[in-house]
Amino acid sequence: MPYQLQPGKMYRMPTHFGPSTGPRQGEDGRKFENKDTPKITTIAVSFLTRPDQLEALLPERFELAREPIVTVAASYITEIEWLAGRGYNTLGVSFPATFRGERDHVTGSFLTVLWENLADPIITVREELGYAKIFCELPEPSVFRGERRLIAAWLGFKFLDVKVQGLRQHSAEEIAALAQAPTGDGVLHYKVMPRTGEWGTADVAYATLTPAARPNRVIRERWAGEGSVQFHKASWEELPTQYNIVNTFYDLEIKEYRGASVTKTVGDKDPSDQRILR
Amino acid sequence: MPYQLQPGKMYRMPTHFGPSTGPRQGEDGRKFENKDTPKITTIAVSFLTRPDQLEALLPERFELAREPIVTVAASYITEIEWLAGRGYNTLGVSFPATFRGERDHVTGSFLTVLWENLADPIITVREELGYAKIFCELPEPSVFRGERRLIAAWLGFKFLDVKVQGLRQHSAEEIAALAQAPTGDGVLHYKVMPRTGEWGTADVAYATLTPAARPNRVIRERWAGEGSVQFHKASWEELPTQYNIVNTFYDLEIKEYRGASVTKTVGDKDPSDQRILR
Amino acid sequence: MPYQLQPGKMYRMPTHFGPSTGPRQGEDGRKFENKDTPKITTIAVSFLTRPDQLEALLPERFELAREPIVTVAASYITEIEWLAGRGYNTLGVSFPATFRGERDHVTGSFLTVLWENLADPIITVREELGYAKIFCELPEPSVFRGERRLIAAWLGFKFLDVKVQGLRQHSAEEIAALAQAPTGDGVLHYKVMPRTGEWGTADVAYATLTPAARPNRVIRERWAGEGSVQFHKASWEELPTQYNIVNTFYDLEIKEYRGASVTKTVGDKDPSDQRILR
Amino acid sequence: MPYQLQPGKMYRMPTHFGPSTGPRQGEDGRKFENKDTPKITTIAVSFLTRPDQLEALLPERFELAREPIVTVAASYITEIEWLAGRGYNTLGVSFPATFRGERDHVTGSFLTVLWENLADPIITVREELGYAKIFCELPEPSVFRGERRLIAAWLGFKFLDVKVQGLRQHSAEEIAALAQAPTGDGVLHYKVMPRTGEWGTADVAYATLTPAARPNRVIRERWAGEGSVQFHKASWEELPTQYNIVNTFYDLEIKEYRGASVTKTVGDKDPSDQRILR
Asked: Sorting pLDDT into bands at 50, 70 and 90, what band is A126?
């Protein structure tokens, strides 16, 4: 007897071994509240660039919002519930954008790409949420004489250097003010899944939103300072699956830096509120 | 101005940086013939199990074909064109099955899962072809006093030991006979992509076929011998995204082993002939 | 003109490229004070075993001190000055012992072996200080529902599982009391370097001491709880350079556990006070 | 009762667990003949440089022999007996030199440094034989459209790119001639072990020789072609334990390339004939 997919349960390939476990469905179907964990240290650097360079990265029905400020943010995550307490690291590049659909009209942070150093969250979140996650190596940053350095690489080719220094710690009041500040509607994505055999066509193409609410997220410590970002130009031979992405960032004009930060947080939310934008 | 997807070009997330490169589309859109490369060493062990245990792993419209023989095959691949000459490793578990659809009626090897140790081929082939690829560590096998050993692990938890020994090299005639032997219609998969936000429903669910033809594949050397397979039972804490898969294989009764082999091949084919089964 | 070793400078192989940099000599010969850094999280579990099993691990002129309590301690270290702010991890097994030499009579912690996951500190500290450092994989521990788990592995063979739970945080007073508690004279080692060609003889064989003083070490947080240690028996094929070590620990009788702790510290000392015991 | 070192047995730190296993002593003390294994693929590129730049790298009693030709050779090794059939990779930089001692007068290849990607052979061979082995990452080379590329890196910093192309396969006659060609007396090393506590002094400092005889080594295939070598300049922050080595090679003038080769061999010898030069 072939198996039947159980109604109301989440599945990813392979579907043959019962419901799939992941961030939105644990053992026996339980949810993850993400309270008190995970623990995340995020290093972020922002810079002003040319608006036309960012507009060229927007899918249909998206437009630039506010200033053309790119943020490169690397997060080093531990104590992740759905991984039974393990961690992984991420590196995202985003800028403010608005989605104007037939029904939805939302403004937030458009996440152009999110590198991660573990395949499991890449697969689950690409397919379930529509994040543009791809793989790279993200070793722990170094901290030396007040300077934090991080790198990103793919099979030995380092494509990014980030440095942050001159950090000044925020007071509890500054952190509280920050936690109150409006953050927009959330994080915007464009989910596409190709159709097998009919190359160049898609089975799936829609925008998705990660709503801004993160009720269990608490900022524990935060520092602000100065930083710099250096992407390294790559040939197809050096980065055969990612050279177009890295070279696009390499080509972005850096008109001026707009500050850097290091933020330590705990907690997040049940990541099941992702929705399709129409 | 937002970008437009170029017609006839293949895209994966992120789609914002132009057409995506991968096994079916290189720089400037060229194809990969896979002639003379890649070079692949495959270690395979087969065993007879209970038919009901395999039937429980088959999606709708699939049924067991011939004997319930499971093959565990690990391939160590180098000189891959679409990765500019790099390599990666794979570990698949398959058994013979038939798909009976409205239009298609095909028999081949049902690939229940394919572990790989590099995220890039996992992403592209899950989404474009519908292979049930997931990640694990697959270090080079050891070869010692006539015995080959391979392991597979996920973040330090070793979930598989395979040993092969007593290898006898095939003659050129035996290899030629093998190359002529009927192989069935190809490799069978069941592609599923979940729908964002409507948890428990799928945007995509169809069977796919990798047609058997591999015109550029040449067997260079082959050995036959004896082997064994030992999956290790895992808790959710040990393998939070894969324990259900590994434990299913752990539970398979091994009625008798049906031989082992080591095969060295060069070449493959343009992997664009994958198609949806209906 | 051949080069001359510069007097007063430290050298390791290769000596041909000028003085060697490491923990005791940085660029331009400067020292590392290790104030405020490194940052170390140590997970330790202790157990009572049979005295004869530990006595068998002591070199000449060493004897057991106090109770035969073995401590397995894993340290996860970041912001290391001599590595320009990078980190690495260690795993040590030690018990109390006394060295009675002609001149020196010291009691401390006898460090039987110290695994580390980076070759550079292994090399420099074996050769300069006489620590019995060897290599293994030491991934970040997981933290899940109040339980910390760590593993140690060598090329895919996991040889150790440690679990710690029931942690109760120490008060500032308890930490202060702990910092005042007598710790013995330091850490004891037995340094041996084989003589080339005259196999079975040694160029060097002497005990060394890491004096207990660590003026810049500050305990930031500490928790005490319960823990367990499980070494896994290995064949020569599984651990061809370390099976004898791991199996010795596997064979130790665990009469009773003597508590576990998690300690977060910053700072250490200039590691140049290591000396030979006579 | 403390343990006694068993006479005639080889020991490395830790010495507390019985005789140490390694390339020169296996389980139960047996030797490794290295017949038919290991299997090694070596990629080598040579270039002519300035003699004074090489003389500056020679210890006392060494002098340049023949032309100042540097060879950068990377070996990818599998099926190593003493590692129970596993493998690892190496990268050496050498040039011809003569040692003129009181007793010995030998000419061979002076191995200035040998990077390896596994700590176990680094430790055993530094201490037992006096090779100047240190650690780096050495991923498998890529092979693409007739070009082989290899890299070497340390914690994400790529310090070397080597490319080889235009390869022409040698005939059996050419290989036979090569196997007959005089190779000098062997490989020359300078072994130094620092003395603990008396910083800047050494317990051990002597030259050693790996005699040229490798009775079980068979060249299976060989290709000759053209190649290039590019070391990348490093800051102390980028390579805190190796910047002096890499920068010395970066500074070497490349007057002209002297060819490249790819060589596949099987077998080696019992590596116990290493001896001290006097």
From this structure: very high
| pLDDT reported for residue C183 | 78
Rounded distance, CA A109 to CA A66, Å? 11
Interface test with chain B among A10, A16, A110, by most B beta carbons within 10 Å: A16
Position A99 confidence tier, pLDDT thresholds 50, 70, 90: very high
With a pLDDT cut of 90, the percent of chain B lying above it is 96
Interface contact D153-A151, CB threshold 8 A: no
Q: Using one digit for the tens of pLDDT, what is the confidence trace for B219-231?
A: 999 999 999 999 9
| Cross-chain residue pair B118–A135, CB shorter than 8 Å | yes
The neighbours of chain B, by the rule of 3 or more Cβ pairs under 8 Å, are: A, C, D
**Beta carbon pairs, A and C, within 8 Å:** 40
- Number of helices (H), then strands (E), belonging to chain A: the values are 4, 14
In this structure, are strands C186-194 and D133-135 parallel, antiparallel, or unpaired?
Answer: unpaired
Is the whole-model pTM more than 0.95? yes
**Nearest CB to C137 within list B142, B144, B156:** B156
Task: Give the span between the Cα atoms of C144 and A79, in whole angstroms.
Answer: 6
Phi, psi torsion values for B97, nearest 5 degrees: -150, 160
| Identity of the amino acid at B254 | I
Name, in order, each residue with C-beta under 8 angstroms of A267's C-beta and a sequence gap of 6 or more.
A34, A35, A36, A37, A38, A214, A216, A217, A218
Tokens of A55: 């507009």
Lowest mean per-residue pLDDT among A147-156, A182-191, C174-183, D81-90: C174-183
For strands A256-266 and A275-277, give the pairing.
unpaired
The pLDDT score that the predictor gives to residue A80 is 98
Give the chain C residue whose CA is nearest to the CA of A139: C86
Q: For C241, which of D21, D130, D244 is closest by C-beta distance?
A: D21
Better-scored residue on pLDDT, D274 or B180: D274
- Taking all residues of chain C, what is their mean pLDDT, rounded to a whole number? 97
Whether residue C22 contacts residue C12, with contact meaning beta carbons closer than 8 Å, is answered with: yes
Question: Which chain B residue's Cα is nearest to A274?
Answer: B197
Determine the Cα–Cα distance for residues C31 and C24; give it in Å rounded to an integer: 6
pLDDT at C278: 96
**A61 backbone dihedrals φ, ψ, rounded to 5°:** 75, 5
Q: What's residue C180's pLDDT?
A: 84
Q: Which of C127, C195, C238 has its CB closest to that of D194?
A: C127
Are the beta carbons of A140 and C87 separated by less than 8 Å?
yes
Look at B158 and C155 and tell me if their CB atoms are within 8 Å. Answer: no
Question: At residue C66, does pLDDT exceed 90?
Answer: no
Region C129-142 average pLDDT: 98
For residue B79, the distance in angstroms to the closest alpha carbon of chain A comes to 12
Distance CA D258, CA A65 (A): 58
Spatial CB neighbours of A108, under 8 Å, sequence gap ≥ 6:
A96, A97, A183, A184, A185, A186, A187, A188, A209, A212
User: What would the two tokens of residue D69 be?
Assistant: 């030709």
Closest of B133, D138, B199 to residue A135, by C-alpha: B133
pLDDT of residue D180: 84
User: Subunits that touch chain C (at least 3 Cβ pairs < 8 angstroms)?
Assistant: A, B, D
- Cis peptide bond N-terminal to C59, omega within 30: no
Are A156 and D158 inside 8 Å of each other by CB?
yes
Minimal Cβ distance to D15: which of C190, C195, C275: C190
Backbone angles phi, psi at A78, to 5 degrees: -130, 170
Q: In this complex, how many residue pairs, one in chain A and one in chain B, have their CB atoms less than 8 Å apart?
A: 239
Q: Using the predicted structure, report yes or no on whether residue B103 has a pLDDT greater than 90.
A: yes
Question: Can you tell me the ipTM of this complex?
Answer: 0.97
pLDDT for D235 equals 97
- pLDDT for the residue C179: 82
For residue D2, give the nearest of C58, C84, C237 by CB distance.
Answer: C58
